[in-house]
Amino acid sequence: MKTLKLFLFIATVLAVASCSSVKVVADMDKTVDFSQYETYSFLGWQDDSDKILNDFDKKRIRDAFISEFEARGMKPVKENGDMDVSLFIVVDQKTSTTAYTNYYGSGYGGYNRYRGGWGYGHSTTTYSESDYLEGTLVMDVFDGTSKDQVWQGIATSTITENPDKREKTIPNKINALMKKFPVQAK
């Protein structure tokens, strides 16, 4: 019984921890030498997707990207950068369901391996649902000269609704995305 409760506790902690992590996938043109890029231009938000963000979060995202590119030795320019960067964001409402089962046995409950046979017992399963917001940020990178797409990174994560926490989580999530970028921080 204690082992089952410990297992359920560990499973619950892992499930909650995995909800707060960032899932990042990236794809790239493997023929491109990314070390040639020294400057970048921001093309803006695709399809005005930034309209769902407040000005504070837009600034947090912009500052986090500037910091990440700066750590890679890249400088922003207004236009005609060695590479062009565009962003797209989507927010979806999601529902998570969790279940917890309590097993109860009576005096003769469960299988008794010493006496043999099955007894009476019962279990109760409790379900709970919680709504949350999941955000997906897509970063497209294009060669500044050819205008060909050379890299794409997609980060998906639960959105923290507390503004004080977003001040920390947004840079952390951008950092997780940029770890997949071909040029690593120095």
Task: Please provide a written account of the structure.
The protein is α/β, with parallel strands linked by helices and 186 residues long. Helices cover 27% and strands 39% of the residues. It contains three helices and six strands; from the N terminus they run H-E-E-H-E-E-E-E-H. It has helices at 2-19, 55-71, 163-178; strands spanning 22-28, 39-45, 75-76, 83-105, 121-143, 149-158. It has a six-stranded mixed sheet with strand order 1-6-5-4-2-3. Helix 2 (55-71) packs parallel to helix 3 (163-178). The radius of gyration is 24 Å and the shape is elongated.
Percent of residues in helices comes to: 25-40%
What structural class results from the helix and strand content? alpha/beta
Strand order of the largest sheet: 1-6-5-4-2-3
The rounded Rg comes to: 24 Å
Mean pLDDT: 83
Report the total helices: 3
**Overall geometry:** elongated
Describe the protein's topology.
Blueprint (H helix, E strand, L loop, with lengths): L1 H18 L2 E7 L10 E7 L9 H17 L3 E2 L6 E23 L15 E23 L5 E10 L4 H16 L8
Parallel strand pairs: 2-3, 2-4
Antiparallel strand pairs: 1-6, 4-5, 5-6
Helix pairs in contact: 2-3
Features:
186 residues, alpha/beta, 39% strand
Give a summary of the structure in a few sentences.
With 186 residues, the chain is an alpha/beta fold. It contains three helices and six strands, in the order αββαββββα.
